[in-house]
Design goal:
The complex is a heterodimer. Chain A is of the alpha+beta class. Chain A has a single domain, classed as Heat Shock Protein 90. Chain A has four helices and five strands. A five-stranded antiparallel beta sheet of chain A has the order 1-2-3-5-4. The longest helix of chain A has 22 residues. The radius of gyration of chain A is 15 Å and the shape is globular. In chain B, strand 3, helix 2 and strand 4 form a beta-alpha-beta unit. Chain B is globular. In chain B, 40% of the residues lie in helices and 32% in strands. Chain B is α/β, with parallel strands linked by helices. At the A-B interface, helix 1, helix 2, helix 3 and helix 4 of A face helix 2 and helix 3 of B.
Chain lengths: 142, 117
C-alpha cells in the first residue's frame, strides 16, 4: 500500500532566520527517530534549512511575521518533507544547477540552496496550490 | 536561537586565526562577515579559519567564504581552512569547494603552507 500514510509530524515557525535552529532540531530529531544514519541526518537537515532560508529571504523578503509549515510524513520507506508558505512564488523547478567549476572560478555567490537540496534529496518538487507554495522533498530509507 | 562565535587570534608570521564555534547559517553569517571585514580593513590577508568547534554550515555560510576570498588573495594572502569535522567537510566537498580553498587537517599544516608557498 504505497500511499498509506503511517506517520505525520508538523512544525510551524515564523519567517525569521533565528528560527532556523528550531527547524534543524525538529528535522534532525525526526530523521534520527526514523532510522537515518548521521551523514544523512545532517544532509536532510541542511536541505530543509536551505528551503526555509530561501522562503524567509526571497519568498517573504525578511518580513518576520509570516508563517512556514513543515510537515514530515513517513510513507513506507519514504521520508517526506512538505514545506508550505504564502510568500512570493518562484519556479525553482526551472532553476538550472550551476557548473560548480565555473561558479568557483568566478567567485560567484548565492544560489546554492536549491542545488544542495537537489543533490541531497532523492526527489524535490516545487508546486503552487491555490496561493500557497508547496515544496515536497523525499529521502528514501535504504 | 543559533549560537555562533568567532575568536580572532594572532600567530607568528603575520598569520591570523579565526576560530569558529557553533552553527553558521543565514542567521549567524553577519558575525563571520564582520570578522573577515575587520581582517581586510587591517590589511591582514594571511588567514586560517580553524573549524574545530564549528558544528554546522549551510550555503549561507559558504557564501561568506566566497565573498572574501578574492579580496584576500588580491591582497597577497589566502583563506586556509583547518580542523574540520567530517560532517562540515562533507558539505564543502559536496559543492566542490576543495577546488578553490586549501582545506587541511590541522592549523599547523595551514601555517606551514603560508611559510612555504
Amino acid at each position: 500500500m504505497a500511499n498509506q500514510q503511517s506517520y505525520k509530524s508538523t512544525l510551524t515557525i515564523l519567517s525569521q532566520t533565528e528560527r532556523l535552529n528550531d527547524v534543524r532540531e525538529f528535522v534532525s530529531g525526526q530523521a534520527r527517530s526514523h532510522g537515518f544514519i548521521e551523514d544523512d541526518i545532517n544532509k536532510i537537515t541542511i536541505a530543509v534549512d536551505e528551503a526555509c532560508t530561501n522562503i524567509i529571504k526571497h519568498g517573504y523578503a525578511y518580513a518576520p511575521d509570516q508563517r512556514i509549515d513543515i510537515d514530515i510524513i513517513r510513507k513506507g520507506n519514504d521520508f517526506e518533507i512538505i514545506i508550505s508558505d504564502n510568500g512570493k512564488h518562484f519556479d525553482a523547478n526551472a532553476i538550472q544547477s550551476p557548473d560548480m567549476k565555473d561558479y568557483l572560478a568566478h567567485y560567484r555567490r548565492g544560489g546554492l540552496g536549491v542545488y544542495l537540496m537537489k543533490r541531497i534529496m532523492d526527489k524535490v518538487e516545487f508546486n503552487l496550490h491555490s496561493d500557497k507554495n508547496v515544496l515536497r522533498m523525499i529521502k528514501t530509507l535504504h | 536561537m543559533s549560537d555562533f562565535k568567532v575568536h580572532i587570534r594572532e600567530r607568528a608570521n603575520n598569520i591570523h586565526v579565526l576560530e569558529l564555534k557553533g552553527y553558521l547559517d543565514a542567521h549567524t553569517t553577519p558575525t563571520l562577515e564582520e570578522a573577515f571585514q575587520k581582517m581586510l580593513n587591517e590589511k591582514k590577508f594571511r588567514i586560517i579559519v580553524n573549524c574545530r568547534e564549528m558544528s554546522y554550515i549551510s550555503s549561507a555560510g559558504l557564501g561568506v567564504f566566497m565573498a572574501f576570498i578574492e579580496d584576500v588573495r588580491s591582497g597577497g594572502g589566502d583563506i586556509k581552512l583547518s580542523d574540520m569535522s567530517p560532517k562540515v567537510f562533507n558539505i564543502f566537498d559536496l559543492l566542490g569547494f576543495p577546488m578553490l580553498y586549501d582545506i587541511v587537517k590541522l592549523e599547523e599544516d595551514a601555517a606551514k603552507k603560508f611559510e612555504t608557498p
